[in-house]
Amino acid sequence: MVDVWLPYGKSNLCVRIPARNLLGSVEPKEMEGVSDPLAEIRRALKEPFGSKLLNELAKKGQKVAIVVDDHTRDAPSELMILPVLEELNSVGITDNDITIIFGCGTHRAVKPEEEKNLLGEVGNRIKTVSHSCKAEDLVYVGKTKSHGTKVKVNRIFAEADLKILLGDVGFHYYAGYGGGRKSVMPAISCAETIQHNHAMLLNSKARTGILLGNPVHEDMTEGAKLAGVDFILNIVMNSKGEIVRAFAGDLEEAFNQAVKLVDDLYRIVLNRKADIVVVSAGGHPGDIDLYQAYKALDNALEAVKRNGVIILVAECPEGHGNQVFYEWMMHFGDLKKVEREVKQHFIMGGHKAYYLLKALKNHTIILVSSLPDYYASDVFKLKTSRAVNDAFKEALKISGSASKVWVMPHGNHTLPIINNQN
After folding, report:
1. Helices marked H in 5-76 — which ranges?
2. Which of 237, 257, 289 marks a domain boundary?
3. What span, in angstroms and rounded, lies between the C-alpha atoms of 85 and 58?
């Protein structure tokens, strides 16, 4: 037997797999985190891509808006923002002239205890707000030429003199990659803007790891330009959550440099697909709810055969995570009906129902979580197990005792690519 440990919430679970079945563990390439994260971020700020230095863009008396990730992301916002504040303060911009906006998109507001975890003592220095996509005072900044999306964004951001985005770059299952322009659309956009953009996820190019020809990405980029982004700071982390490199500067150039490193670390070539894939959503916060954990499932689909079995290991302490996701699974529950609804009446959250039903069409999915069976089985149509090894035994019954198995401990970050030449 081979023991493989999988992140689960803030702990780990061990799955035991016979050596004869195990093809291996699909994991990101190892790259050590920098020894001094603050020094790495300061270096990036001094070596921006396609942009003046931040302290050259900043002027005393300016109002500054800084967008950071919300509680569903694991970007180390406190580490990232401290050097940014140093740069701003160095030219005479006071803390009172700065607002930090949590880019919540369609998610709920950040709770006080979550803010403390995200920003530490910075939250005591700087005014913070959680963006609401349904706020009444959002500002229209224009319509995208490529896809006709009417872009409305957070008023504080729209009216700021200097606009900065902070975040991390990793794979995203329809935007191609997270980071960069996503800190505007969807992070600080209105519900209608987000819905119009995300409805394009049905396009065949709207996939993990694809930017060229991806309409969701193209529209997001144009929307961020309309919003007037001045400077970004993005980081790439290893599977341990350590910063391996920071990228600063122009909205597109800095982001594209980060994308190259993500590909180097997390795009993993395999020689074959497996009958069974055991995948973890990477633990907290990647498995905070089923809505977030789906990202790992989506990546696992690349490594499993048609009609194969996926075991998704995700604690989901906050349940399903999205009311629309829940309602669409309850009311439609059929792939053709959901696809039609996405095309005609797209609502954020409904897209997860589309993706999940599409995955279930040709695969058996077993969920190991704390989600009540009523939700997991009756609503979301998943098989369930309270123990990962029980789930594995069930998978062998379904797929056969000789089944070959890939394990993905960090499925939310890892993109398997099958080498068709083998």
Report:
1. 37-46, 54-57
2. 237
3. 11
> Residue 330 phi/psi, 5° resolution?
-70, -50
Please tell me whether residues 66 and 194 are part of one structural domain.
yes
Q: What is the pLDDT of residues 352-376, one digit of tens each?
A: 999 999 999 999 999 999 999 989 9
Report helix, strand or coil for 221: helix
Spatial contact of 22 and 405, defined as CB atoms under 8 Å apart = yes
Q: What CATH number did the domain enclosing 291 receive?
A: 3.90.226.30
C-beta of residue 155 within 8 angstroms of C-beta of residue 139: yes
Task: Give residue 391's domain range.
Answer: 2-29+267-418
pLDDT digits (tens, 9 = 90+) for 83-98: 999 999 999 999 999 9
Stated as kind and residue range, the H or E segment containing 67 is strand 64-69
Q: Name the pTM for this structure.
A: 0.84
Q: Which domain CATH number covers 82?
A: 3.40.50.11440
Q: How far is 200 from 238, CA to CA, in rounded Å?
A: 30
Percent of the chain with pLDDT over 70: 99
Q: Does residue 260 lie in a domain region? A: no
Residue at 322 is within a domain? yes
Q: Is the pLDDT of residue 106 over 90?
A: no
DSSP code, position 53: -
